[in-house]
Design goal:
alpha+beta, two-stranded parallel sheet, 6 strands
Length: 425
C-alpha cells in the first residue's frame, strides 16, 4: 500500500515537472517569436538614439550655440603677450649686439557703431533658428518613421489577406474545373478562374517583396533590425484643433520668423557704417641687451575712427538691406499663410481618411455577406457564373480597399501631427 502511494506521488511529481517544462518551452517559443517585433514607442526610442539625421541636426544646433557664445567676444577686452630675443652682427669686426624684449598689450572696443551689438543679436537669432530646425528635423524624421512603421504593419496584413484570397481563388478554380469536367460550366469560365488564381499568386508574391522593402526602410531609420511592427491598429481623430495656436508653436513657423528677424537685424546693422568707432588700448614693454638689464616702456591710447565718406557704399548697403528686409517680410507672410492652410488641410484630410476607412469596413461586411449568399445560389443553380463572379470580385476588391484605406488613414494621422511639428507618441 505504501509503495502504491509512493508510485502515485512520483507520478504526480513527474506530471507536474512535465507541465513546468512545457510551460517554459511555450514561454521560450513566444519570446523567440516576438524577439523581432517592434512597438511604436520602441521605434521612437531607437530612432532618437541611433538615427543619423537626428544626430546631424543636433550637431548643427550645437555649432550655432557656440557661434552665439563666440559673438560675446567682441564685447570683451583683447589681451596678448609677446617675447623676443635676438642677436645682430655688423661691421668688419663682426661686432654682435644682443636684444631681448617682452610685453603685454590690451585693447578694448568702447563703441563699434553698434555692429557688435547687432552681430550678437543675429547670432542669437541663428541659434534660435537652428533649434527650431532641429525640432522640425525630428518631427519630419518621426513622420518618415511612422510611415515606415505603418508600411511594415500593413504589409503583414496584406500578406495575410492575399493568402486568404489566393486560397479562395484556388478553391474557386478547383470547383469550376469539376463543373467543367461534368459539363456544367464552359471553358471560358474555367480559364477565367485560373487567371484569377494566377493573379492572386502574383499579388501575394508582390506583397511579400513589398514587406521586405518596408522592413529594410524601418531598420535603416532606427539603425537596428526590425522584423515586425506591432501597434499600428487604427488612426484616431483628435478633438477640436486650435489652428492658430498650433501655427505659432510649429517649428516651421519659428524658422520663418527667425529668418525674418535676421534680415531685420541685418538692416539695422547697416547703421554702424554711419557711426564712428572708439577703442582703448594700452601696452607695457620691457626691452634691453639681456634679461637682467631691461628698461620699461608703456603706452595708453584712446582711438577714434570715423569714415565720413566711404564713396556712398554705406548708403547703398542700407538701401539693399532694406529691400531684402521688405522681401523677407513678404516671404514670411506667404509662408505663414501656407503653413496655416497646411495645418487645417491635414486635419480635414485625417477626418476624410478615417471616415473613408469606416465606410470601407461597412462595404467589406456587406460584400462578405453577398459573396456567401451568391455562392449558395450558384451551387444550387439559382445564379449564373457571370453574376456570381461579379459578386466574388467585389468581395475581394472590398478586402483590398479596406487595407488601402486603413493605410491612408494611418498616413493621414501621421501627416496631421507633422503639419504642426508634432508626432504620434
Amino acid at each position: 500500500m505504501v509503495r502504491k502511494v509512493q508510485w502515485v506521488l512520483a507520478g504526480r511529481e513527474a506530471a507536474t515537472s512535465l507541465r513546468i517544462v512545457l510551460l517554459v518551452l511555450i514561454i521560450a517559443i513566444q519570446l523567440v517569436c516576438s524577439a523581432g517585433a517592434l512597438t511604436w514607442p520602441e521605434a521612437l526610442r531607437q530612432a532618437a538614439k541611433n538615427n543619423y539625421e537626428i544626430k546631424s541636426a543636433a550637431k548643427q544646433t550645437e555649432a550655432a550655440q557656440w557661434s552665439y557664445y563666440k559673438s560675446y567676444s567682441s564685447f570683451l577686452p583683447q589681451l596678448s603677450a609677446t617675447a623676443a630675443t635676438g642677436q645682430t652682427t655688423s661691421g668688419t669686426l663682426a661686432a654682435t649686439a644682443n636684444s631681448v624684449s617682452y610685453g603685454l598689450s590690451v585693447s578694448q572696443s568702447l563703441f563699434t557703431g553698434l555692429a557688435n551689438y547687432y552681430s550678437n543679436l543675429s547670432a542669437k537669432a541663428d541659434y534660435d533658428y537652428y533649434q527650431a530646425a532641429q525640432q522640425k528635423a525630428v518631427a519630419d524624421l518621426y513622420y518618415q518613421l511612422r510611415q515606415a512603421f505603418v508600411d511594415l504593419s500593413i504589409a503583414d496584413e496584406n500578406i495575410l489577406v492575399y493568402k486568404q484570397i489566393l486560397e479562395r481563388r484556388q478553391n474557386n478554380s478547383d470547383f469550376i474545373e469539376l463543373r467543367y469536367e461534368t459539363g456544367r460550366e464552359d471553358k471560358g469560365s474555367l480559364l477565367r478562374t485560373k487567371a484569377d488564381a494566377a493573379d492572386a499568386a502574383y499579388n501575394l508574391a508582390a506583397a511579400e517583396r513589398a514587406r521586405s522593402l518596408a522592413k529594410l526602410k524601418l531598420s535603416q531609420l532606427i539603425s537596428a533590425e526590425a522584423d515586425k511592427a506591432e501597434g499600428a491598429v487604427s488612426a484616431n481623430i483628435p478633438g477640436a484643433a486650435d489652428y492658430e495656436q498650433l501655427l505659432l508653436t510649429a517649428p516651421a513657423y519659428k524658422m520663418s520668423l527667425k529668418q525674418l528677424e535676421k534680415y531685420e537685424l541685418s538692416y539695422k546693422q547697416t547703421v554702424s557704417e554711419f557711426l564712428p568707432s572708439v577703442s582703448l588700448s594700452g601696452s607695457y614693454r620691457k626691452s634691453g641687451t639681456d634679461w637682467s638689464s631691461t628698461s620699461d616702456s608703456n603706452s595708453v591710447s584712446l582711438n577714434f575712427s570715423y569714415s565720413f565718406f566711404p564713396g556712398g557704399a554705406n548708403i547703398a548697403d542700407r538701401v539693399i538691406a532694406g529691400v531684402q528686409y521688405d522681401k523677407a517680410w513678404q516671404d514670411f507672410q506667404n509662408d505663414k499663410d501656407g503653413l496655416r492652410y497646411s495645418i487645417e488641410s491635414a486635419y480635414r484630410d485625417l477626418k476624410d481618411a478615417v471616415e473613408a476607412e469606416a465606410i470601407a469596413q461597412q462595404s467589406l461586411a456587406a460584400s462578405a455577406m453577398r459573396a456567401e449568399i451568391a455562392r449558395t445560389k450558384y451551387l444550387n443553380g439559382l445564379m449564373t457564373y457571370d453574376s456570381w463572379d461579379i459578386i466574388e470580385n467585389e468581395y475581394i476588391s472590398a478586402q483590398r480597399t479596406l487595407l488601402t484605406r486603413k493605410k491612408a488613414a494611418l498616413y493621414a494621422e501621421a501627416a496631421w501631427h507633422n503639419s504642426y511639428g508634432g508626432y504620434i507618441k
